Amino acid sequence: MNTDIPLPGEARTILPGLRWMRFPLPFPPSNVNVWLLEDGDGWLAIDAGIADDETRSHWRTAMAGEAFGNRPLTGLLVTHFHPDHAGLMGWLSAEHGLTPMMTRIEWLQARAVWYDTGTDMLQQQAEFARIAGAPEAYSAYLLRRGALYAKAVAPLPRAFRAIADGGTVTIGGRDWRVMTGQGHAPDMACLYCAELKVLIAADQILPRITPYIGLHAGEPMADPLGAFLATLERFRALPDDTLVLPSHGEPFTPLHARLDALAAHHAERLDALAEACRNPSTTHALLPALFRRPLDDRSLGFGLGEALAHLRRLEETGRVERLPDADGVIAWGRR
Asked: Which of 48, 56, 191, 298 has the greatest number of CB atoms lying within 10 Å of its CB?
């Protein structure tokens, strides 16, 4: 879709009553989209951006300028708990007297992670990395680095309004159906308007990059990749010419080709990882099967999480098995 990309603090009109803002991020993918939906005398925002001074400044510029057109922020819906989406949820809610909308699982996850900053949580992450075969120096790095979530997320609101899969949110006189997605986040809210044929897809369907799918220490037997692939199939029920508004990247069509590409990408990675497991190896030793370049400490946790998500899918489908050693370090081998 040939639409000028908005500068921070500005907005571009996608359709009447629907505007696109974009804020910078201090980490890849470098930008996050925020969507403004006209709602009565004001605007409802989809997502809040990360909690830093730069993003706060861009919000103030937008609200004081043409982006908002002298209309107030009157509503907020946060798609999921990740910092680039929920970071300024509390600040915007307090500044404008809002009760944000969010799925219950995402709300509870945000609160759990925000308050879970103790040493025991860091030790759990370090042990999770150890049994994946990561070097001892990485576990030490995790303990030294400390918890990150609360540094990128402002204090959370005390209350929220729950939305759920299959429910309807009426915004500006139009009905938006809530469609939740799993895999990238536990219960991420996407919104579909049949009248407009528009899908606000959050991080579930991105135009050029693949959403991060990772396994985490708090739920080590989950199957996030299986959940993600199942979600893609559910979204296939939407019309192919749906206009997709992603949280990263530009609006795009068609929908089904992108669903196909995402599924094919993961099928290829599963095959590559299964082949690498012919020689039983730890998760850490298997990383070159998925990543072309070595991962530094800042990205190793994401790499291990992504590899483990694929290994769990292979385990669930009977293609690999785990082979723990006497110290609990797990190798993965072909079945």
From this structure: 48
Model's pTM, two decimal places?
Answer: 0.96
Burial of 167 (0-12, 13-18, 19+ CB in 10 A): middle
In what side-by-side order are the strands of the sheet with 198-202?
168-171, 174-181, 188-193, 198-202, 243-246
Angle 14-21-179 (CA atoms, 0-180°, nearest 5)?
70
Q: Which residues of the chain have pLDDT under 70?
A: 1-3
Q: How far apart are CA 2 and CA 12, in angstroms?
A: 12
- Residue range 223-251, pLDDT digits in tens: 999 999 999 999 999 999 999 999 999 99
User: Which residues partner with 236 through β-bridges?
Assistant: none
- Per DSSP, the three-state class of 252 is strand
CA–CA distance, 53 with 308 (Å, rounded to integer):
35
Pairing of strands 73-77, 320-324: unpaired
